[in-house]
Each structure stands twice: as C-alpha cells, then as structure tokens.
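Example 353, ligand nicotinamide-adenine-dinucleotide.
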Amino acid sequence: MSLPSRQAYVPFVSVDNMMRLVLDVGIEQIMVELADVIEADFRRWPDFDKTPRVASHSDIGVIELMPTSDGQHYGFKYVNGHPGNMRQGLQTVTAFGVLADVPTGYPLLISEMTILTALRTAATSAMAAKWLAPRDARVMAMIGNGAQAEFQALAMKAVCGIREVRLYDIDPSATRKCAANLAGRGLHIVQCDSAAEAILGAQIITTCTADKQYATILSDNMVGSGVHINAVGGDCPGKTELHRDILLRAGIFVEYPPQTRIEGEIQQLDPDHPVTELWQVIAGQSAGRVAADQITLFDSVGFAVEDFSALRHIYQRLQGTSFYQDLDMIADPDDPRDLFGMLCRAGAQDKVA
Ligand code: NAD
C-alpha cells in the first residue's frame, strides 16, 4: 500500500483533486466501492481500536476529531457541524483527514474530506439499507435537500436499486437545486411540499436536515409499518430529527453505541434501551429486519471506521494517478539523530544562495 513517492513526501488530495478522482471513477461507482470497503471493515469490527469521537461543542456547532486504528493503519478526521453556516454561504460540514502507518507512525496520506464525507456517509446509508430495508424498496423519501442529499439519493440508487426519490426541504430552493442536480441520472424525481407528502409510498425514508435542536422532522403518525428510516441529520447532543415515539416502535441499528447514545436519535431514550450494532448484522451475529411490517431505523451519526475505510480506499485509488500533490511533511535528515545539523545546513545553504 505505497505510492511511488519519496518517503519524506506525503500525498495530499485537495478538493480539486478529489473532485477529479471521483469524476474519473464515476460518482455512483465510487460510492459502490466505498459501501463495499466500509462493509468489509464493519465485518472485522473487533479489529478496530474504537472510541466515541472527541467533540468540542459551542452554542452554534461542534468541532470533532474521529480517530481509529486496525493495528496496521491509523486514521483520523477533523470535521465540523455548524447548521448556521449555510446562511453565511458556508458549508454546514467541512472535513479533512489523515491516514498513517502504524509500524512507523509516519503519515501516508492527507486528504480533503468534505466531499469524501458526503460520499462515505451516503455509502454507509446505502450499505445499512441493503441489510435492513425491504428487499423490493424502489421509492425513497429524501427530507433535507442540502449538501448531502444528492449523494444519499445516488448511493441508494446504485447500491439498493432505488428508482424514485421524493424530495422535501423547508427551503424550496434547496429542493429545486437537488432536483436539478439529480435530473438525467436515472431517477424519477418528485418535488414535494411537505414531509408527509414526501414519504407517501416510500419504503426508505432518509432524514438529513441540519438544525441544532430536538426537531420533529417525522412524527409518529406519519410513519407506517414496514419502512426503513435512515436518520442522518441527528448527530449531536440536543440535535435530533425523529419523534421519540417512532423510536419506541422501531428496531434500532447503530454504528458504535457509546457514541450513538450521546449523539444519535437514541439520546431521547433510556440509556439501556436495546439497540443492535450494525456490524453484528453484517457479520451474521444478529438479525437485521425480522418481519415485513417491522420499522427498521439506522440511527446514523457517522463513525471513525467509515472515514478510515474511505481514506484507505482513496489511498489505493490514487495509485498510478496524478490526483495528488506531494507535501514536504516529514523531516528526513541523512542521520535521523542529526535533526539540528540538517536545520543548520539548510541555513548555511540559504546564505550561499
Ligand atoms: P445542509 O445545511 O447543507 O442541508 C441541510 C438542509 O436541511 C437544508 O437545506 C435545510 O433547509 C434543511 N432543513 C432544515 N430543517 C428542516 C426541516 N425541519 N425540514 C426539512 N428540511 C430542513 O447540511 P448537510 O451537509 O446536507 O448535512 C445535513 C445534516 O447531516 C447535518 O445535520 C449534518 O450534521 C448531518 N451529517 C451527518 C452525517 C452522518 O454520518 N450521520 C454525515 C454528514 C452530515
């Protein structure tokens, strides 16, 4: 797993290069690949060193660090969540990440992760839906039509075979943007005037709104039996999307319970309310959907393993491409103990020059 670069240089994937790489591979194709690598890493979940992400909250948002390691590689992501940013023309979520080699501790890759987070979040949603949603699901409601929305819809199309997406956002201009971006991509798009209209006939309901409060995007009477809910937007203490009564009717699936109990929809429930870890379903240790009329809920908050999988995949996908720049990140004196001498020689060379 190494790029043909001098060890002292670390490949850096800028936003521009990430876009070029994703377009070169294909947007749906890379999400299919990411769903596969994330699923493979979920299957070997016990191999990972896991901790709830380290969050620094303010009244208007959060900044988080998300580390994990499988003993061979180490990864972390820096990510923010600021629902008010959009009103200033800024992204709600921005991110970058690092992949490192555990035996040496040297960084292997630095990458933008704003686009990569949208891709991996959508890939994770689709992977979860593949295991939990009704097999014949063809219609999806997409509530919250912001930055993540198109990625979510296309991943569900590519991985689960969704054919119709019903869009709703409190801001109609977001829905128009989303519909325009999805036009011509093989999905039947329906723009709706309410969340209730959007979920009509949908077997998969994705909520992906941003508001730092206990919001009620879906109330209990709106949700019929047998649907799969993919709740993406509630991912912080005090930031949820579903009415508590829906949770009490649903089979709940989570990434990493110690983090989801703090950040997910289930923060509204008793701390010992039963939930199933998604990796256990994938590894064949727990049941997924157990009945056609069961409501399944993937209480997505985003976990470090998904970012780790995405960084490793991007690292492999970079091989043989020009979609990165070498960063001079590692000091590499000829004698590893002579760091000071290297510094002084650089000064002497500058004087000569
Ligand atoms: P965004 O700000 O670009 O879009 C959010 C959209 O939600 C906006 O268009 C807004 O008008 C809409 N909205 C707000 N309240 C609504 C309501 N009551 N009903 C309908 N629409 C409403 O944000 P984004 O980047 O698309 O992210 C969406 C959410 O997903 C954020 O809360 C973010 O923190 C979360 N997120 C979660 C994960 C994860 O892994 N679970 C990953 C990335 C983002």
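Summary: Residues 208 and 232 are 5 Å apart (CA to CA).
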